[in-house]
Amino acid sequence: MTRPVETWLTDMDGVLVHEELPIPGAAEFIETLQRSGRRFLVLTNNSIFTPRDLRARLLGSGIDVPEDAIWTSALATAQFLLDQRPGGTAYVVGEAGLTTALHEVGYVMTDRQPDYVVLGETRTYSFEAITKAIRLIDAGARFIATNPDPSGPSQDGKLPATGAVAALISRATGRDPYYIGKPNSLMMRSALNRIEAHSETTVMVGDRMDTDIIAGLEAGLRTVLVLTGSTKADAVDVFPYRATRIADSIKDVIELVETGEV
């Protein structure tokens, strides 16, 4: 027998917003979750921003998400490193979302024999920083990347993302990174732990079959694919796995929150 839904995880880009534009129903979805008293987290593979930054950006789009209800790949990476090697050191290629998360778990940023090279998202990749990362990995630093996304959207078109830069470093060093963010189910399990949720009573809402849905599936969650983002309706059957439900948009998921059944 399927247990009632008690907690929700939802992706951000493509589910709640497109860049800065809210997707119809997103604000109401969050309001319904809050009114129901069900615990929830908004997940994102983007490691550029802190939860406080993201809350402000979402609020500017009319979506009121509490800061402590936002879980980023940067936070998941920091939690992973804290569990693996407390009080460690890292050379970071990334922005405030990642460096802040690592500082908060007690990590020291250094380019002198760091335990890890940690690669995150940034809009200002420096050839000098990438070269430094390559040399440190060659010297024995372990290679971690926040997420495998090869590209991301912008108002002017596609941008290279963490996965693309990681491929450059991997080609130069012969070392592949360990990716923390989706589709690694580690991201999902860290999110579940964050809100003390159980996989059997949690739903993951996402717009990508190859990250959100597979990560939810592998973590034992029920999944809802919304068709407002990356994966379109005509591409769903290409994948060898299925979402529990498919919805046109987040607006159609509100009813599922209210009934507690997926």
Overview of the structural elements:
The protein has 2 domains: 7-45 and 182-259, HAD superfamily/HAD-like (Rossmann fold); 85-179, Rossmann fold (3-Layer(aba) Sandwich), CATH 3.40.50. It is 35% helix and 20% strand. It has helices spanning 26-36, 51-60, 73-84, 96-104, 127-138, 162-173, 185-194, 209-218, 254-259; strands at 7-11, 17-18, 21-22, 39-44, 70-72, 89-93, 108-109, 116-119, 142-145, 151-152, 159-160, 178-179, 202-206, 222-226, 245-247. The strands form 4 sheets. Strands 5-4-1-13-14-15 form a 6-stranded parallel sheet. Strands 7-6-8-9-12 form a 5-stranded parallel sheet, with helices on both faces. Strand 4 (39-44), helix 2 (51-60) and strand 5 form a beta-alpha-beta unit. The longest helix is centred in the N-terminal third of the chain and has 12 residues, at 73-84. The radius of gyration is 18 Å and the shape is globular.
Estimated radius of gyration: 18 Å
Mean pLDDT level: 95
The main β sheet shows up as: 6 strands, parallel
Secondary-structure element string: EEEHEHEHEHEEHEEEHEHEHEEH
Uncertain spans? none
- Number of spatially distinct domains: 2
Q: Could you say what the CATH topology of the largest domain is called?
A: Rossmann fold
Shape: globular
The CATH architecture of the largest domain can be named as 3-Layer(aba) Sandwich
Can you identify the CATH class of the largest domain?
A: Alpha Beta
**What's the number of helices?**
9
The helix/strand class is alpha/beta
**Separation of termini?**
12 Å
Measured by DSSP, the beta-strand proportion falls in: 15-25%
Number of strands: 15
Strand order of the largest sheet: 5-4-1-13-14-15
CATH superfamily of the largest domain, please?
Answer: HAD superfamily/HAD-like
Percent range for helical residues? Answer: 25-40%
